[in-house]
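Ex. 9. Protein: Cyanate hydratase.
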Amino acid sequence: MQNREQVTQAILVAKVQKGITWQQVAEQVGQSKEWTTAGCLGQMTFNAEQAAVVAKIFDLDENAEAWLQVVPYKGSFTEAVPSDPLLYRLYEMINVYGSTIKSLIHEEFGDGIMSAIDFSMDIQREENSAGDRVSIGLSGKFLPYKSY
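Predicted structure tokens for Cyanate hydratase:
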């Protein structure tokens, strides 16, 4: 018997063993590399067709394929402040610039939030003579607070 975390681990092991990229998986699934990766890491729900493709790519059994279709518990941090250097830097960016981002969103849109449900993300490499840069684009629907 498996659980979703074990399915994620099986995917990661198979990915390394097969030497495939998330982009290659996404092309077969038919979704963006960002969304497909989130699904493979247990943060999104695959439909039956997508789950079958992922199961085939990673040689997963029917039990694992079923877990890919279960709505996951969202959230990837298992500690208050992440210790992984890359995740820590993202956390640090929000810690340093979070109030600025919040203030600018409120000034532009009003009192509300940026959705992480009606959302897209784009991660790209920017070539730069001083060293390549990581470009992360986040786009979420603005959801205003309502009066009642």
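Check your answer against this statement. The chain has two domains: 4-67, 85-144.
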